[in-house]
Description:
Blueprint: H1 7-20, H2 30-37, H3 41-53, E1 57-60, E2 66-69, H4 78-86, H5 110-126, H6 129-135, H7 139-142
Antiparallel strand pairs: 1-2
Amino acid sequence: xxxxxxxxxxxxxxxxxxxxxxxxxxxxxxxxxxxxxxxxxxxxxxxxxxxxxxxxxxxxxxxxxxxxxxxxxxxxxxxxxxxxxxxxxxxxxxxxxxxxxxxxxxxxxxxxxxxxxxxxxxxxxxxxxxxxxxxxxxxxxxxxx
Length: 145
């Protein structure tokens, strides 16, 4: 599990990047994604349903069904995926876990965390999923290009 995101969010990011590499208009089954990304099927199904409900994916039932990105890949940022799964708590959460942490009442790492968080958000907002999918070097993503 990563330092910043939940396991569910990590899987959501992996799935969205996988879908970003698919030909436009094509649908991908949960079974295929679960196998290729090594994510438990039922867990991935819940994540994809949630992303569909939040408007990032579209789904189609039936033999030719599956999941696809709802928006053009250039319009989906990592921050949108993270917000859809983990919410916006990371924007205001204390890195040390204190409930009250602010300029007026800072923890020992407050100033450093604010600088790091600002840089992180710049990346999450500036990079869209197709940019990242193209830069992905993991073998499972290379097969899709």
